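Journal club prep, shared notes

We agreed each person brings one worked example of a sequence with its structure written out as tokens. Mine is Ribosome-associated protein. I'm keeping it raw so we can talk through how to read the token line rather than staring at a rendered picture. Sequence first:
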Amino acid sequence: MNKVKINTEIIKLDAFLKWSGIASLGSEAKIYIQEGLIKINGEICLQRGKKLKIGDVIEFENEEFEII
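Then the structure, token by token:
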């Protein structure tokens, strides 16, 4: 599992995808989310603005990213 440190209490899903390197552009992040390719804590998430917090686990292409 990859650990990703954020500098704030919360981060929006689309911003996290860019911050962690999953997506290089906001438009790319939007497509991943709209196509149901992103899971948060085991559940598919279709909300670009979903607020993530420390401890959340994001899954993309069988890779997991934990926010620390």
